[in-house]
Amino acid sequence: MSGNSNLDPSHLETLDRDLGRLSTLERATSSASRPLLGMGLALIFVVFAAILAALIFGHADNTFIVVIAAAFGAYMALNIGANDVANNMGPAVGANAMSMGAAIVIAAVFESAGALLAGGDVVSTIAKGIIAPESMGTSSSFIAAMMAALLASALWVNLATWIGAPVSTTHSVVGGVMGAGIAAAGFAAVSWGQMSAIAASWVISPLLGGLIAAGVLWFIKANIIYRDDKIAAARRWVPVLVGIMAGAFASYLTVKGLKKIVSVDLGGALLIGVAVAVAVWLLMIPVIRRQSRNLENRNKSLKVLFGIPLIASAALLSFAHGANDVANAVGPLAAIVQASSTGDFTQAVSIPLWVMVIGALGISFGLFLFGPKLIRMVGNQITKLNPMRAYCVALSAAITVIVASWLGLPVSSTHIAVGGVFGVGFFREWDTARRMRRARQPVAGLSVPPEERRRRKLVRRSHFMTIVAAWVITVPAAAILSAGIFVVIRGITG
Questions:
Q1: Cβ(167)–Cβ(378) under 8 Å?
Q2: Digit-coded pLDDT (tens) for 191-211
């Protein structure tokens, strides 16, 4: 009997509990190790960028400075991928039009393609004319300012990603350049007119994006969703909506994303957009008719018709984002490379191919390693999205950039996209409350209790306040951080 004591049921239960604890421990260890793995891979990429700079720039006297700058640029690119790209992919993922994995692959491919094929090869010496280059005095002071701006903006975007706030990387770089410029040459060196325009874009970008997204959603609800025969209405209007989206993106890409390939003014871009819109509208009429066969007359069926346009819009937004915003990572790095190799820091800066590659790869790696957090925030946690609502956000992003270009206003793609999500959510709140009032109007004295009204709010107020606060303090926070880093760098280098 003693030989079979190990088979006692109580012993088996104890063993099961121990194995259960071990399994739980393994899962916890695996979960805890994932962030460490991501940071380890990110560090490897930063080291790779530094080694690449050393190999290419090894003949010059300032190789060490360029190597450090390349590491900072790679770090900034990783943070752009982790934070900024979520704005393009978040709505499509939140609407279940594509999986997280598909979003990451599509974004990585199109961001890199946009950066390498259409990324501008010439940028202003200092980001967007914030600081007069001549005010920096010497090339060493200029290089220190760009190093400080690059590191400060990367640290700020990293912090924003950690707290779950999508912020403008453009504004982070602008703040970094401004802070370092003030520390180096005083307040008079700053172009305050340009800074005022950028500050205005904090308000203009999200308001324009939100209003356009809400307007498009209102149109879809009024002309398709609230119709008795939804499928017939969809057959009429969905081809028109897809055509408008195609035309808007054609103009958007022509104005913002294809400067390196072809230069077209805004009027020409709009003509191209109209031509593409008409062509796509005619093409989509038989496609939507075929897709809508045998669909039930309910809202859920309509989501099928917006899936493919939404995926295409996310890819095009990523292409245009890569073409434009990669300069946030590599613009200051390219300026450091030019100043280190030639001593000239007052002229326009050409971005070498190897610098652009660091930016493109960094954005892709940052998205892959750290992007899902912000994608979920934009796609799921601000308000509930479906393909129709996400379509409104994507279309508003393209149209807002075109309108802003026409008005000559600087705007942030991050603020536009997130503003579009907020616009859709707040419109749904307003529309739901309006329909409830109409439904209950005949019943005298009937009111909705405050608790029920709170439950029906469709936009999370805590996320709204966090994101707005992060937007407001991005430029001053990056500026203060950059000024401090500049002082430290000058102290070290003498």
A1: no
A2: 888 788 777 877 888 898 899
Reported residue count of the chain is 494
> Encoding tokens for residue 170?
């453009």
Give the bridge partners for 123, in sequence order. Answer: 349
- Asked whether the CA dihedral 387, 326, 184, 191 is positive or negative, the reply is negative
Average pLDDT over residues 252-281: 81
Q: Which of 3-17, 175-189, 345-359 has the lowest mean pLDDT?
A: 3-17
3 state SS for 20-60: HHHHHHHHHHHHHHHHHHHHHHHHHHHHHHHHHHHHHCCCC
Report the C-alpha gap between 324 and 321 in whole angstroms: 5
Q: Is this structure's pTM higher than 0.90?
A: no
For 306-370, give the secondary structure using H, E and C: HHHHHHHHHHHHHHHHHHHHHHHHHHHHHHHHHHHHHCCCCCCEECCHHHHHHHHHHHHHHHHHH
Token pair 């536009």 is at which residue? Answer: 416
Please classify residue 168 by burial: count the beta carbons closer than 10 Å to its beta carbon, then call 0-12 exposed, 13-18 middle and 19+ buried: buried
Taking the C-alpha atoms of residue 40 and residue 31, their distance in angstroms, rounded to an integer, is 15
Distance CA 238, CA 154 (A): 41
Write the burial class of residue 407 (CB in 10 Å: 0-12 exposed, 13-18 middle, 19+ buried): exposed
Looking at per-residue confidence, does 458 or 304 come out higher? 304
Burial of 3 (0-12, 13-18, 19+ CB in 10 A): exposed
Tokens, residue 139: 């090339």
At 4, list the tokens.
């079979």
Q: Render pLDDT for 213-262 as a digit per residue (tens, 0 to 9).
A: 999 999 999 999 888 898 999 999 999 998 998 898 888 778 765 666 67
Average pLDDT over residues 308-323: 81
Instruction: Give Dmax over CA atoms of the chain in angstroms.
Output: 94
Helix H or strand E encompassing 123? strand 122-123
Neighbours of 172 (CB within 10 A): 33
Name the nearest CA neighbour of 53 among 369, 329, 326, 336. Answer: 336
How do beta strands 122-123 and 349-350 pair? antiparallel
CA angle 474, 489, 332 (to 5 degrees): 55
Report the 10 Å Cβ neighbour count for 163.
11
Report yes or no: 285 and 216 within 8 Å, Cβ to Cβ.
no
Residue 36 has pLDDT above 50, yes or no: yes
Which residue(s) pair with 350 in the sheet?
Answer: 122
Q: What is the pLDDT of residues 53-111, one digit of tens each?
A: 888 876 666 788 889 999 999 999 999 888 877 777 888 888 888 888 888 888 888 88
Helix (H) / strand (E) element for 122: namely strand 122-123
